[in-house]
Amino acid sequence: MNASPLSAASGHAVPLRVGVAGLGTVGVGVIEILRNQAALIAARAGRPIEVTAVSARDRSRDRGVDLAGLGWEDDAVALARRDDVDVVVELIGGAEGTALDLARAAFSGGKSFVTANKAMIAAHGPELAAAAEESGLALAFEAAVAGGIPILKALREGLAGNAVGRVYGILNGTCNYILTEMRTTGRDFSDVLAQAQALGYAEADPTFDVDGIDTAHKLAILAALAFGGRPDIDAIHVEGIRHVTIDDIRFAEELGFRIKLLGVARMTGQGLEQRVHPCMVPLSAPIAHVEGVFNAVVAEGDAVGGTMFQGRGAGRGPTASAVVADLIDIARGHAGPAFSVPALALGAPAAAPIDAHVGAFYIRLMVLDQPGVLADVARAFATEQVSLESLIQRGRSEVEAVPVVLTTHATSEAALRRALDTIAALPAVIEPPRMIRIENSL
Ligand SMILES: NC(=O)c1ccc[n+]([C@@H]2O[C@H](COP(=O)([O-])OP(=O)(O)OC[C@H]3O[C@@H](n4cnc5c(N)ncnc54)[C@H](O)[C@@H]3O)[C@@H](O)[C@H]2O)c1
Ligand SMILES: N[C@@H](CCO)C(=O)O
Ligand code: NA
């Protein structure tokens, strides 16, 4: 257990002593905020919060923060055994390995644990929450979802009186930054990704960002808080943004949409639907205008209706802001359960398959403009009872491919996929059809 906030003998506030593992983008940010705002934080927490020890890979590296006077551990797990550490903050990353060893060691060593590691919480959150709760310790991970936006607190506390029907959002700053820069500058994907990495937004392995995996980790955690189940990454249908082209972005604008990578979790008659994929979002929806590194989360409760939270989802200051808020909760002595119910009460809701999804679709085909092609395409949709809403064809060439863009009315995903299989096999369709789901109900 942490030391009690007030020393009985002196009446002086006892500091909360923090060990930080990982001194990269976020770790350095946490040390900076705790130092730069020490007086304000002590006043709010009722006692000072002080970093006493750190662990990182290279002791000699200049990180722009003064580490003099701090304990140093080459092995991060050793932080969990130090007498001068009450709370361990893990900012290394990775679902397994050192991060997980450190989390387990913290709880067995009687220390609370704060992390920004969504990969680990999505995979092991319930086990770690149970270990914390058994010992009266805190597990907190506000920084893991939507960076600086206090969305986990909002779901756990502010919306606690609501049954949530749907929660969705832009949960990856790197992807939103890439899509925004592609649209506004016309630059290509890899160029913009390198910039997001330089700004400290991207994961150590940026395929986690661009392939939707990071969004899925965050959605699994959000859904767990919103619907009271264990995070279930395997139940999430995941697609990333690699296939989104400048052409798609331009067609979207023309059709009155903007392309966003969304994570959506919704309770349906067939179970909990969880999906991560690029979406065509109507320009009239507020979330269409959340740009750059900004994230947004919309949570819909039965009593409150829709609520939207917006802020920076990645980067040093925003992410460290959330870590420090968790530390202040722990210093105050009211961190609450890690999820919105005790870990042992987390359920396992049935998963609705993606084929059961019903919605409108944007389809882009690259076709040779020969007589009869569009008739064949239209017939494939008609056979599957897929009703078309609009069609755009650009250019004219019987030897070079031209784009044909179609949008559908609401239809079942299973029927749409069968139609696309038929269309992909047409000789005049020379690239795999590209499909982007349209979200009209935002
Ligand atoms: N950067 C962001 O915007 C952001 C936002 C939200 C969450 N996160 C999460 O925060 C965590 C840290 O991310 P980051 O961007 O600061 O990463 P980073 O790569 O900048 O920093 C990680 C640090 O950990 C150190 N490290 C690696 N292995 C170690 C070990 N065994 N012992 C001690 N130190 C070790 C590395 O040397 C590095 O300095 C990750 O879980 C990430 O998913 C990052
Ligand atoms: N790589 C993540 C960091 C924040 O979790 C992002 O781009 O959103
Ligand atoms: Na957050």
UniProtKB/TrEMBL annotation:
Its EC number is 1.1.1.3. Gene3D superfamilies: 3.30.70.260, Dihydrodipicolinate Reductase, domain 2 (3.30.360.10), NAD(P)-binding Rossmann-like Domain (3.40.50.720). One of its GO terms (biological process) is threonine biosynthetic process. NCBIfam families: PRK06349.1. This is Homoserine dehydrogenase. It holds the Pfam family NAD_binding_3. Coiled coil: none annotated. Keywords: Amino-acid biosynthesis, Methionine biosynthesis, NADP, Oxidoreductase, Threonine biosynthesis. Pathway: Amino-acid biosynthesis; L-threonine biosynthesis; L-threonine from L-aspartate: step 3/5; Amino-acid biosynthesis; L-methionine biosynthesis via de novo pathway; L-homoserine from L-aspartate: step 3/3. Residues 362-437 form the ACT domain. Belongs to the homoserine dehydrogenase family. L-homoserine binds at E203. CDD domains: ACT_HSDH-Hom. One of its GO terms (molecular function) is homoserine dehydrogenase activity. SUPFAM superfamilies: ACT-like, Glyceraldehyde-3-phosphate dehydrogenase-like, C-terminal domain, NAD(P)-binding Rossmann-fold domains.
